[in-house]
Amino acid sequence: MNKLLLLLAVLATPLYASAPAGFNDDEIALWAAPLEGNAVFESHRGEVAVNPASTMKLLTSWAALNRLGPNFRWQTEFRSSAPLQNGVLQGDLYWLGRGDPRLDSARLTEMLRQLRLRGVRDIAGKLVLDQSAWHGIGTAEGFGGDADRVFTVAPHTHQLNLKVAWLRYHFDAGQPQLTLDPPLPGITLENRLQVGDGASCGDVRRFVNITQQGALLRVSGRLPPACDGAANYVNLLDSDNFAGQAFAALWQQLGGSGPRGLAVATTPPGARSLLQLDSTDTLASVLVDVNKYSNNTMARSVLLTLGAQFPVGGDTFADGERALRGLLAERQLPTAPLVLENGSGLSRRERLSARLLGEVLRDALRGPYGPELAASLPLAGEDGTLKKRLGEVGGSLRLKTGSLDNVRALAGYWQAPSGQRLVLVAIVNSARADKLTAALDAAVAALVTRYQARLAAAAAGGL
């Protein structure tokens, strides 16, 4: 037997471990395996169905990369059946949104600028949002108490700025001023800020109090001059009105007139295309936000995009799930236990096993898009949701984090300086999960240490 086969044989001896220090036996599921071969290095409750929290995003990312490709881009289009006469569009403008997760004010402004260059000066009809790209977006039940939080914003075909507006602060003649970006004509901004003390700013939210009453947004507090240029985001309006009001404000900033109202409808047959542009960002770029910063809305949009590109039954989320499950079967990977609610992990109901997720990660790293998936994961001790965690672990440790009530999770891979890679998944489901983050990090670090020792032993044996 050659040395490579001997090495694989040594590494293949699985350790069916008891729970790591600090955990009860039923509080954690662990699964770890070397990239090479089909061996399992360690497993503890690896087949048990658990809530993965945001590590579910890895499953969605893997499916999207394989079915859509890393260079996939989202398309946005404007159409109309109305004639254009002397710069006036004599009717409605249809905005065909297809769920670009990173559509922002800058990109929309560029689109509107190009409409102006193509001769449109005045929109005499309504702006009509065509949302027919998606039918059924999945759910995220059980988060009613967080409905005003940004992390619960549902995906939308016209998701401008992730439905987030920025309050931007500056000083003029020594007095604190603020602006809303993008400007939203339906929101009245009331500035009650006073000049405050402080040599530094940091998080500007320490100094301001923001209240919303209907269309009135009131900002009070004592703002230090050091906060000139600071900003914080606010979640305003529903997605339809956010997109419509932002469009109108940006259009008028470019010198355009109209539109005269907002509606939601399907583009009539035969409407001609006035402008069609691809997204600035590719799927691979979007997945950096999905995984490094655990963006729920973007992750859900990615799975819906998968469903929209491979329609079967007419429900976009169900079609996305069907495409994902089909890929699992095609790759002969475990298809159970798996429960999907939206594909982002923002769910009380989603379930998978540590082994299922681990096998998906192993398949990903062996495939053509492994580098793209790996690059989207937080690097321990350096960036994303792992910036202040696990930096002491040697080699390259890239892990997606997961956090919900009663759930803490880590999943990704570690690469030894000599090049060997270990896929690892650790998922805590426990009523005291919020107190077990440090223990989870310690368990992962210890797992890596044990694998390093196994590699060293194999090397010492001359393998």
| Main CATH class of the largest domain | Alpha Beta
Question: Residue share in helices?
Answer: 25-40%
Taking Cα atoms only, what radius of gyration do you get, to the nearest Å?
A: 25 Å
Intertermini distance: 11 Å
What share of residues are in beta strands? 15-25%
* Count of runs of 4 or more consecutive helical residues: 10
What is the number of beta strands? 21
Question: Biggest β-sheet: count, sense, barrel?
Answer: 5 strands, antiparallel
Give me the CATH superfamily of the largest domain. DD-peptidase/beta-lactamase superfamily
In terms of quaternary structure, what is this?
A: single chain
CATH structural fold name of the largest domain: Beta-lactamase
Uncertain ranges: 4-14
Mean pLDDT: 94
The CATH architecture classification of the largest domain is 3-Layer(aba) Sandwich
Q: Strands of the largest sheet, in order across it?
A: 2-1-21-20-19
Q: What gross morphology would you assign? A: globular
Alpha-beta classification = alpha+beta
Give the total of domains: 3
Enzyme class: hydrolase
InterPro entries: Beta-lactam/transpept-like (IPR012338), Peptidase_S13 (IPR000667)
Protein name: D-alanyl-D-alanine carboxypeptidase/D-alanyl-D-alanine-endopeptidase
Keywords: Carboxypeptidase, Hydrolase, Protease, Signal
